Every structure is written in structure tokens, then in C-alpha cells.
Protein 1
Amino acid sequence: MSRAAHTEPGQIEKFGATSILEILGSILCTQVFSGCASNHSHVSSYEFVVEDTCSGRLDVYLAERLQDLSRSRIQKLISGGQVLVNSKRERAGFKARPGDRIEVTIPPPQPTDIAAEEIPLDILHEDDQIIVVNKPKGMTVHPAPGSKHGTLVNAILAHSKDLSGIGGVERPGIVHRLDKDTSGVLVVAKTDAAHSCLQKQIQKRTAERRYVVLVWGATKFNEAVVDAPIGRHPTDRQKMAVIKDSARYTARKALTNLTVLERLGHFTLIEAKLDTGRTHQIRVHCSFIGHPVVGDPTYGGLKRSVPGSLGKLREQELARLIDGLRGQALHAASLSFDHPTTHERMAFEAPIPPDMDALITWLRTWAGT
């Protein structure tokens, strides 16, 4: 066993695949603004008149001016007919021009029909804007087909009646997700303003998410950057994959920073820092570079042979510990962000769960044999 030495910046290894460029319009112009809200229906309406010379996407224009709404929320309003340009419906990519009159109607959040369920929560912090929890392995974040009960949302609804609805009917308050079998720190928004603020921090990478992950194999790097777009697997729609053929398949930019924390024989303990938040991102990227996450049943980390001479008894012990993970050895260890209203920098940590910690402890004892 040995701990990784510090790697100089010039020695950071980079893994990449053909990237897909994301072209965003930019609008710099002045506007006449008016807004009103009804206290009874909670419907808000706004009006903009575009002035000066400007050109760019309609959704970008509104996202810059309606700071409490995420861009995805604005796109839903546009597609739903709640945004009119010169009294006509337009697409999110419509190019706004001087003199265009833009009307925005924001309906009240749709009430959720998700059942509140009294499920114990490990709450790290709570105030009138946010709840920070340590999500256990095996808990789905939000209801989905085949998983309507026992989710984090079910538990949060029983704990707090006032949750942000901006995330959609099926995901009240949810700002970001963790896979079902990934444990660790997760923040939930109680208000729409908090939800939008936190999402913007994640998108702008000012919110920092760090994971601890145990992978198969001894990595050749101490630090690495995996810059490879992720999309739905071309043949297995239940999986995600690094997409190299962007002309045939849809993918989104995905970037993961990896730093070796500890070398454990034929295993490596790594810290992963996300710059983007794609589905299964860390698991897909680790598999892509040839070091799948230990215990991952989807991306090649469930069963692998271990070179060396552990002996039959030790090999059986190792197999039992890996089987005992009940999923991937991946943990969201820390999360830091600026509080939505006080703007104070907040940082939260969650300890590695017992099953993963037991495996790491065993490897520290026997990995070098």
C-alpha cells in the first residue's frame, strides 16, 4: 500500500472523446420591464420590450432577466405557451430583435400527488431555505416508474410540507440527484428562489461536489481529467455511455476530475470532482478509462479477477465484502455552496458508509500481500 504523491500540473493525464459543442446565444441589450403577481392565484406575469441592437436566443434573454428561474424552467414555459413574443408563441431558440414585446406568465407550481412517508432522515442541516441530508445507499431520490414509494422525496414531504415545486411535479425541491446505490450529501430546496440559486451554482461550477470512489486496478496516473461526452448507450437504452460518434448519437459534455487518494494493491481509492452532472457520470467515466467502480453491476465493476497470491481464504473474504456493498463503491463525501439568501459559504461532509469502509479497511490490511 502506498499513498499517491502530489502530481505537478503538467503531469495531469487527460482522457477525451469527440466532444459536442454547445452553442449558446448571448444577448446584451436594454429592456423595458414590468411585472405583477396575484396574491390569490400566485400567477406572476412580466413584460419586456427589447431595445437597442441585440440578437440571441429567447431562453437566454429571459434567463438573464428572470434570475429566480432556471433556464430549463424557462424553456418549459416557452414550450408550454406561457411566453409570447409580439403576441405569438415562439421556440426557445427564437432570435429576439429590437422592439420585440415579450410577455411571460408564470403559473403556480403544480401540487404534487406524491405520498408523504415517515422515513428516517439523516439531516446534516436545515433552515427556511434548504435541507441538507446524507442519503443512504439503496434509496431512490425521486419517484419513478417502478419506484413510487420509499424515495427521498416521499421522506422529505413527510418532514417538510413547504418544498420548491420548480423541479417539476415528480421532483419537488430536488436540485441534483444521486444514483439509488450512491450514498452521501445532497441538498434539497424549500423555495423556488433557493432552487434556482442552487441550480445556477451547479451550472456555473461554483457549487463543489466531491466523491470518494474505489475502482478496480492500479491507475497509472495520480491526477487525471476525463473530458468525454455522455449519452444514452446506442444499443442498451438502460445504460449510459461515452459517445464518440456525435453525428449519429446525442450526447452532452461531461467532465470529471480524478485525484488518487490511496493505492491499495490492485485497487485505487480516488477522489472525483464533477464539473458537470450527467447521469451515471463518474461510473461511466471510470469504466471508460479502464477502471470501473468496484461493485458496479452496470458498468463492469461487479466481478473481476485479482492478480496476485491472496490465497483462497482471502479471495473469499474479498468477494464477500464486494458482494456486501449492494451496489457501487461510490460516495458523495462533500458538498459546498453559497447559501441562497445569506450568501454564506457552506460546506457539508458525510462519512463513508460502513460497507464501503469495511472493504477499504480490509484492503489496507491485505492489499499488499
Note: The helical segments are 58-65, 71-79, 152-159, 192-203, 281-288, 312-323, 354-366.
Protein 2
Amino acid sequence: MLGRIREKLSDLDYREVDPREDPDYAAQFNIKYAPGIIVDGTIEFVGIPRERMLLDRIRQLQAPGQEAQEEEESS
């Protein structure tokens, strides 16, 4: 899922964190069991959200000018 989102919104720093694979990074965000989604250094989701929910949240975090530019590019 993150691969498809990266194609659409490549200018934000976001990643899925699995505490089993990266326990030190996950501990920084107090993620112990479920995967988490970190956007620009802030935990936005614990667990894997639906793609639409994640895309909507990332777009909310973008600057207004960037959001308009993304919409133009996808048209």
C-alpha cells in the first residue's frame, strides 16, 4: 500500500513501522505490538489504515499549495 501512495505523494517523509523489524525506532513512538504509520516524525496511525484514510491524512498535512499541485498533476 505504501508503494502506491509514494507514487502519488512523494514529498512527505512517511513510513510503516513494524516493532518486530525495527524495535528501536518503534520504541521512540511507543509502538509495541501493531505496526504504525509515522508521517513527518509524528505517529498518525497504529495499525494499518485503509489506503484512502492514509491518503486523506497525508493530504491534510500537506501545505495548501502542494495539495493543489498534486490534484493538477493527477488530472
Note: Residues 51-61 form the longest helix (11 residues).
